[in-house]
Specification:
Order of helices and strands of chain A: HHHEHEHEHEHEHEEHHHHHHEHEHEEHEH
Mean pLDDT of chain B: 91
Number of helices of chain B: 5
Helix content of chain A: 25-40%
CATH architecture of chain B: 3-Layer(aba) Sandwich
Number of strands of chain B: 7
CATH topology of the largest domain in chain A: Aspartate Aminotransferase, domain 2
Number of strands of chain A: 12
Structural class of chain B: alpha/beta
CATH superfamily of chain B: NAD(P)-binding Rossmann-like Domain
Oligomer: heterodimer
Order of helices and strands of chain B: HEHEEEEHEHEH
Strand content of chain B: 5-15%
Distance between the termini of chain B: 39 Å
Radius of gyration of chain A: 22 Å
Number of helices of chain A: 18
CATH architecture of the largest domain in chain A: 3-Layer(aba) Sandwich
Low-confidence stretches of chain B: 1-5
CATH topology of chain B: Rossmann fold
Shape of chain B: globular
Largest interface: A-B, 65 and 46 residues
């Protein structure tokens, strides 16, 4: 047991910036390589038949096959768990895949859950249509504590509340703390998509959330070069006390009768998401994408500070422009969510927001076609600034009434503010709005 | 979480204490070790054996049989030779009696540590053990703590809390 001498002696609490660089990523044991190596590798040699059996039975920790675990991906998983202040994480091929892993681990066929109406459009489609075909029903509500409470009274069988704390696209902020209390009073977990804020701006676990999901494709990787997603658990939800999750607290036939909560305790949810959902459906994150995301996260604090500073300047400029009817950015005092932003996002209200043009649909199209520096595409969280006119693109198939309800009316333009010189972004928009 | 206030506050142990115990002990008497391979105690026993510990299973229902090729004894007093640590793999309500037996046997067996498993906690029994000079850890699993402090647990995405620029040695 030589390795016993290698045990650390009580690490102190490190700051966010330090953990963004170091968490999960000690130098490689074999080579001393300082940067996390890319294990572009499928399978791992067993020490012997007994070791193989132990790994398959989950009786020891180690690597079998990269669909389940990979040494590069696991560094990212530990880093994300650490930065969110959670217990454990499992990565997936995309944010959508991560949402599927979380919900497959929470829900049985015939179950329902409650979700905010103000979600990324792709999540609304995933929950409202594709999940329905798996026998899961999503009840969408206005994301206020009162509406979540009312929905739970109407659907007491619901198994979780799902929301985006800082919502895409409209700059809306949900009052997390009371919503977490409402979920816990019902014995169910609060699941928060923290993609737009990242743990640098907001830690949902600090306000009572139980599970956090991410599209790591966005601000975490930060450079628009790697698809990815993650599910992180706080480790604080008591699956046994709840009594509503037999999949966590009774022997699982998908794993030879193993009881995940009893065996793995406060990281049982993550183990089940990995050992059942990820194993059996297979949306694993590629090692190369994990490497790029790890590298991106090293500069997350610096980037987010600049993203929000630039967003604030651009939002203030737009609010003062005569061609602009309104700006929905929680960093502005005019925003109905400004007070919640000060409570939950004191470092800044993210860098994705919408604004409305007095000239309506035609002005929206003219704006996205006239900008030179903003990229006209469907993504957020890039170093580059991005622009889209939802009514003519992502929400084109909806009626005008539906577009307005989704915060994507004919006059709406969405921005994702990048890391360029703020004045260059303002100049570019000024030219486009004057055109 | 809006928990009722009868729930005791969560326990905190410094990594240095836990690492010190895992470095120090060699022989573990596991009270409540199960021969059923899907039970957590069976998992933990096999893992600890693999890390070089001597594990003596204690289980009256299986006395005289073997678990992972280790002879099972009916009770703590029957365990042969010295026992550094007693690992309590029983419900919290049964922990007190096991702790009191360990205190009785502490000089005879050389017992230094009482470890109660994940979900097992008896604050009064812990106080008695500490008064008798024993180190006590509750509501933790030695397998998980060993994996956490060695970086193995990070392999399945668990936040070890370990931050270090030193090369790991295997």
């Amino acid at each position: 047991m030589d390795s016993k001498n290698d045990m650390p002696d009580g690490p102190p609490e490190f700051g966010f910036e330090t953990r963004a660089i170091h968490a999960g990523a000690r130098p490689d044991a074999e080579t001393g390589a300082r940067v996390t190596p890319i294990f572009q590798n499928t399978a791992y040699v067993f020490e012997n038949a007994e070791h193989a059996a132990d790994l398959f039975n989950l009786q020891t920790f180690g690597f079998i096959y990269s669909r389940l675990t990979n040494p590069t991906v696991s560094v990212l998983e530990e880093r994300l768990a650490n930065l969110e202040g959670g217990r454990a994480a499992v990565c997936a091929a995309s944010g959508h895949a991560a949402q599927f892993l979380a919900m497959f681990t929470l829900l049985e066929p015939g179950d329902s859950f409650i979700a905010s109406k103000n979600l990324y459009g792709g999540s609304i489609t995933q929950f409202g249509h594709s999940f329905k075909r798996l026998g899961w029903t999503c009840h969408f509500v206005e994301p206020t504590p009162e509406e979540f409470q009312r929905a739970l009274a109407e659907h007491p069988e619901a198994k979780c509340i799902f929301l985006e704390a800082l919502a895409n696209p409209g700059g809306l902020i949900v009052d997390l703390e009371p919503v977490a209390g409402i979920a816990h009073d019902a014995g169910i977990p609060l699941v928060v998509d923290n993609t737009l804020a990242t743990p640098y701006l907001l830690k949902p676990f600090d306000w009572g959330a139980d599970i956090v999901v991410h599209s790591t494709t966005k601000f975490l990787s930060g450079h628009a070069n790697s698809m990815g997603g993650a599910v992180i658990e706080s480790g604080k939800f008591d699956w046994a006390a709840s009594g509503k999750f037999p999949g966590m607290t009774t022997p699982d036939p998908a794993y030879h009768g193993l009881t995940f909560f009893e065996t793995f305790g406060d990281f049982g949810f993550t183990m089940k998401a990995r050992a059942v959902a990820l194993r059996d459906f297979g949306p694993a994150m590629a090692p190369m994408n994990a490497f790029l995301t790890i590298t991106g996260i090293e500069t997350l604090p610096l980037r987010m500070d600049r993203h929000v500073a630039n967003a604030q300047k651009v939002a203030e400029f737009l609010e003062g422009h005569p061609a602009v009817a309104w700006v929905s950015y929680a960093g502005l005092p005019s925003s109905p969510w400004h007070t919640l932003a000060q409570k939950y996002l004191p470092k800044g209200a993210g860098s994705v927001f919408t604004f409305g043009l007095r000239g309506g649909y035609a002005a929206g199209i003219r704006c996205v076609e006239t900008v030179e520096l903003f990229s006209h595409l469907a993504n957020i969280g890039d170093t580059r600034s991005l622009i889209i006119h939802p009514a003519s693109t992502t929400h084109r198939q909806l009626t005008e009434e539906q577009q307005v309800a989704a915060g994507a009316g004919p006059d709406v333009v969405r921005l994702s503010i990048g890391l360029e010189t703020a004045q260059d972004l303002i100049d570019d928009l000024e030219k486009a709005l004057g055109a | 979480m809006n928990q009722p206030d009868e729930a005791p506050p969560p326990l905190h142990y410094d990594d240095a204490l836990v690492a010190g115990v895992l470095k120090d002990v060699r022989t573990i008497a596991m009270v409540g070790a199960s021969p059923n391979w899907v039970r957590p105690s069976n998992f933990a026993m096999k893992y600890l054996l693999g890390k070089g510990y001597t594990v003596i299973p204690i289980n009256p229902g299986h006395a005289g049989k073997e678990i992972w090729e280790q002879a099972v004894y009916a009770e703590l007093g029957d365990a042969p030779g010295p026992v550094d640590m007693v690992d309590v793999f029983r419900a919290s309500k049964d922990a007190g009696g096991i702790v009191d037996r360990a205190i009785e046997l502490k000089d005879e067996k050389g017992i230094r540590v009482i470890w109660m498993q994940l979900g097992v906690r008896d604050d009064a029994a812990a106080e008695r053990a500490r008064a008798a000079g024993l180190t006590v850890i509750m509501d933790r699993c030695p397998k998980i703590e060993y994996g956490r402090l060695f970086g193995e647990l990070g392999w399945c995405g668990v936040n070890s809390g370990v931050i270090s620029a030193k090369r790991t040695k295997r």
